[in-house]
Amino acid sequence: MTFESLNLVPELLQAIAKTGYRKPTAIQQKSIPLVIKGVDLLASAQTGTGKTAGFTLPILQRLTESKPTKPNQAKVLILTPTRELASQVYESVITYSQFLTIKCACVFGGVNINPQMKKLRGGVDILVATPGRLLDLMSRNAVCFPNLECLILDEADRMLDMGFLPDIKRIIKTLPTQRQTLLFSATFAPEIKQLANQLLNKAVTISVTPENTAATTVKQWFHPVDKKSKGKLLSYLIGHHNWQQVLVFVRTKRGANKVAYDLEKSGISSGIIHGNKSQGARTRALKEFKAGKVRILVATDIAARGLDIDHLPHVINYDLPQVAEDYVHRIGRTGRAGKKGEAISLVSADEIKLLSAVETLIRKKLQRILVEGFEPVHDVPNTKLKPKKNKKPHKKKMAKQKSHANHHQLKNKPKATGRSKKRSKRTK
To answer: d(Cα 276, Cα 278) in Å, to the nearest integer?
Structure first.
């Protein structure tokens, strides 16, 4: 299948050709015709499969037939969980709309709100936003949505994980009920299905990959190493293989700072992205990394989703993530759009449970490779894939439900009469 066969307008085909893409990915093949038809969509796609273009292209196609926007309004609203993902989506819209007369804005927190308000005054066709900043702008009457045609929730599962559900509900209350809604998620978790039932109308569900699987284009392995030797091993691997572009994931902000500092001391240029960095600093670090001005970008899981780096060859897990699902999102930064990539984890003995959780999730044992000179004193034990367990209700939740049931029974239990009370005392 080609992009031409999807009946996209010439201006979009021209923009696609300029990016160098020739064939649509599986998610694009399925989603583009449906979105153009105007149906509601619940889509699950593995990270790195091109789902951003899967909704951006058909939305732009529909806007070519739409009426001009009004001041302080938007016709399409795209909600994302993080600033990085908002910027990435915005860049995709700009790239694909370069031969169209489309107005787009991107708003998120951590930066001055006044330029964002100024840009919204004339109205925009597409508004990409994070929930918190959008609510702030709405409270200042900087933007409203009486003529909204389409709502898109990107990385919806991540938004729920980050506690954005109350914000999303507040935003949705202000939107017209007659609209198209698209919900994109990496998983079809029960919470996502529940949200879809609330938001979508006669939705079509599509899924192109099994949940929690890594792209087949990513080669994965791990190096057993003592915790105290991880920094030296990281520097050795980068120098020995002459890697020029590596995304390194660490568990904590403090850890990210230390890893970047140690790399710089070794003469390896590094940038940092984590929650304590200002938006300007994060944007600058990512820009320098993409441009090749720094070889290494050290990040916490804030960057596991939403970072779109063309042809990123290597991802290193300096620390394994606390949540196994984050491993899939981390390594999904490489091996994108059919390109090959490598994901290397540095695993110490105290991370054995985290390693086992990752392998159980992806249903695959990672290859173990010892690096000469870095053999660990405390070896990483062998792991076994655990059988998948059916999710059971949380103990606290069950106790709460039981307590509620008991309370209900007591509340509705007939009251004993005085005679029955006396009888009960005699029988005791």
So the answer is: 6
Q: Rounded to 5 degrees, what angle do the CA atoms 56, 61, 62 make?
A: 100
Q: Into how many domains does the chain fold?
A: 2
Q: Residues 21-42: pLDDT tens digits?
A: 888 988 899 999 999 999 999 9
Which 8-state DSSP code applies to residue 381? P
Q: Which domain, by its residues, includes 263?
A: 218-368
Is 385 within a domain? no
Backbone phi, then psi, for 121, in 5-degree steps? -60, -40
- What CATH number does the domain containing 281 carry? 3.40.50.300
How far apart are alpha carbons 141 and 320 in whole angstroms?
Answer: 44
In which band, very low, low, confident or very high, does the pLDDT at 410 lie, cut at 50, 70 and 90? very low
| Start-to-end Cα distance in the chain | 82
Tell me the C-alpha to C-alpha distance, in Å, between residue 239 and each of 102, 218, 232, 333.
46, 21, 11, 22
Q: What is the DSSP string of 102-149?
A: --EEEE-SSS-SHHHHHHHTT-EEEEEE-HHHHHHHHHTTS-B-TT--
